[in-house]
UniProtKB/TrEMBL annotation:
Coiled coil: none
Taxonomic lineage from the root: Bacteria, Pseudomonadati, Pseudomonadota, Betaproteobacteria, Rhodocyclales
Keyword Lipid biosynthesis appears in the UniProt entry: yes
Catalysed conversion reaction: a lipid X + a UDP-2-N,3-O-bis[(3R)-3-hydroxyacyl]-alpha-D-glucosamine = a lipid A disaccharide + UDP + H(+)
Family matches, as NCBIfam families: lpxB
Family from the record: Belongs to the LpxB family.
InterPro entries, A to Z: Glyco_trans_19
Name of the protein described by the UniProt record: Lipid-A-disaccharide synthase
EC number per UniProt: 2.4.1.182
GO molecular function terms attached to this record: lipid-A-disaccharide synthase activity
Keywords recorded for this protein, A-Z: Glycosyltransferase, Lipid A biosynthesis, Lipid biosynthesis, Lipid metabolism, Transferase
Name of encoding gene: lpxB
Amino acid sequence: MPPRIAMVAGEASGDLLASHLIRAIRRHLPDAQFFGIGGPKMQAEGFEVLWPCELLAVHGYVDALKRYRELSGIRKSLLARIRRERPDAFIGVDAPDFNLWLEGKVKAAGMPAIHFVSPSIWAWRGGRIRKIARSVSHMLCMFPFEPPLYEKAGVPVTYVGHPLADVFPLEPNRQQARETLNLPKGARALAMLPGSRQSEVRNLADTFIATARLLHERQPELVFLVPLATRETRQLFDEAIYRNQAADLPIRMLFGHAVDAMTAADAVLVASGTASLEAALLKRPMVISYRIGKWQYRLMKRMAYLPWVGLPNILCKDSLVPELLQDDATPEKLADALEHWLNDPAACRALAERFTELHHSLRQGTADKAAGAILPYLVGAEECRLRAVS
């Protein structure tokens, strides 16, 4: 009987991560079967999709509360099937608010519960590690500073590196990216990434456009590249351009092409998040900015216990790039910080060296390393079955 693995992946990023993991496991166990909640990339690897992963995509607390009954029903239905079929393991890929409850129930029922992508316990909600310790059989971490936190709590853990570090080249091809975007030869460019969520774009678009205006006055040759992920976010940024009477600025909005835009740019203005890690792996100088609701910011600031919010600074344990957040995220401060990078090639080279070191540390062959940590649970179950049959 082939090994059976239940999985839950949330959103498109989890779908991609899980698809690579399925492929890596199948290199060792070709007959392995997978089922649960996933997306098209997982399905292309032979995953049985019981519910599509888009159902887990909630945006903020209000949306989560509105959809609580629906999501709770899906989770209970999947748990009932897992208890009935008793797969060899459960793997939750990201989506901690959905998966940790499910993992706790699976573990309590005597099946291994593995979580892939550590929640950000190192940034805030540190007390959450007690719940994780009760819920998971094994944690797979993407960042090298995470395993000691779990080891201290008695959670079996493996550092597997970050998949972006495997995908991104150590030396990005800037010329190719500039050609892809049809940038004029010799033109200087600034990439502006206001976020992938509509709320992020609403909070940052006006400030980013005002920053672009200040920089354009100081350096008229600059071209501003704005990659946006969806039609909705593009429309929001369009409305901000109209609202700020900024149609005269050399702003080029792109549908996607975020990696090309950052690779081609001389500097990057980026909302805090995964895009800041991408910019670091592309060895680009950047300024990190973010704005959220006033009360939400106060709450998060009170719960945070690291001096940084940007992944490049957190991972390097150093204030390598400016973080201008909330009230500090003014056009004047952002423009000054960006102009520092634009006018100081030596500082940019030194930063690129630090980011290259970071890239090496994160490049671990994530999918294969994660599969290697999971296989003992699957192989052990298979051996038990064979002994029972004999």
